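Priority: medium. Attachment 1 of 2:
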């Protein structure tokens, strides 16, 4: 029978539609002989349960909410791709939205997602984000990615301080004596940790810092600003790869040779980092895997296997040496 319905199954099994539904959805409050009869008929008639109806019975939507600071650029595209690949492998769908760095908008989005999703993946790296913990629904599983949201929320974080230290030490090892930093925005706690880590390596005169906003344009402006200094830097750490891309363009336009005149190091290792000119030395955090592992942790939480989620995961950035920095 083509297009068999739940009503067809119930009629042939001589049970109510409610009993047929409980049997097909694996609920316990139905007799074993009824369950077996209903399942055999459903298989013979090639019955396909309606996803929406099934989710109502099971109190599951099979949908995961994803809240990101933005959905523009390679970094967030890779995060979403990792989440999506892991979700599709489990038959789950995504509801994705960006807060544009606005905590009030993030709150509005989470309220809008309430009742529509089985759980939330939240990436909100702004210093005000800890306030979101008090308004998150208690019964909605939440896993955070690189976020500063109240204690008790499992998630994945990056050792940004350690990454900043690694970047600084690498520039020093390559012979740079006048380092500089294009940082991320001060409201972003990840950016602040990268800044703290980088500056902690230098005991004497602190390196010049240009505050960017993680965009290519701010990296371009930062490099232009450094080129006006009486003592030009001979090494620049751009606190994400997109700013490093802008930095490289500004240096090329100014006739500055990279890395002979100025070495450049980025952070994240997004796909484009391999294809810049020259290829970008950077700190790899596994952006795709951040999304994938976040989704897997959330699924584990939903299924009651939340020990890892409760403990959390800390990712240590790995230095990837390419041609934008000197190689000894």
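Attachment 2 of 2:
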């Amino acid at each position: 029978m083509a297009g068999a319905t739940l009503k067809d199954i119930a009629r042939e099994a001589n049970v109510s539609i409610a009993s047929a539904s409980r049997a097909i959805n694996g609920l316990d409050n139905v007799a074993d002989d009824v369950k077996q009869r209903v399942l055999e008929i459903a298989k013979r008639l090639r019955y396909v349960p309606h996803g929406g109806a099934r989710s109502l019975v099971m109190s599951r939507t099979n949908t995961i909410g994803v809240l990101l600071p933005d959905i523009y650029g390679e970094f967030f595209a890779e995060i979403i791709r990792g989440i999506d690949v892991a979700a599709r492998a489990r038959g789950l769908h995504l509801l994705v939205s960006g807060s544009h760095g606005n905590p009030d908008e993030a709150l509005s989005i989470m309220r809008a997602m309430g009742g529509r999703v089985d759980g939330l993946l939240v990436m909100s790296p702004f210093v005000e984000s800890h306030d979101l913990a008090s308004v998150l629904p208690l019964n909605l599983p939440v896993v955070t990615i690189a976020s500063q949201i109240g204690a008790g929320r499992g998630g994945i974080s990056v050792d940004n301080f350690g990454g900043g230290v690694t970047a600084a030490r690498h520039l020093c090892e390559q012979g740079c004596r006048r380092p500089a930093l294009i940082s991320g925005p001060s409201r972003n706690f990840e950016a602040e940790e990268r800044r703290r880590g980088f500056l902690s390596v230098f005991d004497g005169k602190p390196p010049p810092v240009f505050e960017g906003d993680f965009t290519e344009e701010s990296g371009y402006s930062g490099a232009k600003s450094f080129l006006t200094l009486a003592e030009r830097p001979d090494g620049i750490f751009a606190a994400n790869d997109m700013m490093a891309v802008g930095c490289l363009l500004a240096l090329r336009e100014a006739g500055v040779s990279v890395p002979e005149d100025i070495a450049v190091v980025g952070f994240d290792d997004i796909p484009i980092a391999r294809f810049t000119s020259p290829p970008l030395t950077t700190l790899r955090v596994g952006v795709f895997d951040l999304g994938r592992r976040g989704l897997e942790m959330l699924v584990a939480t939903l299924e009651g296997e939340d020990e890892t989620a409760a403990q959390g995961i800390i990712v240590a950035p790995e230095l990837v040496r390419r041609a934008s920095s000197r190689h000894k």
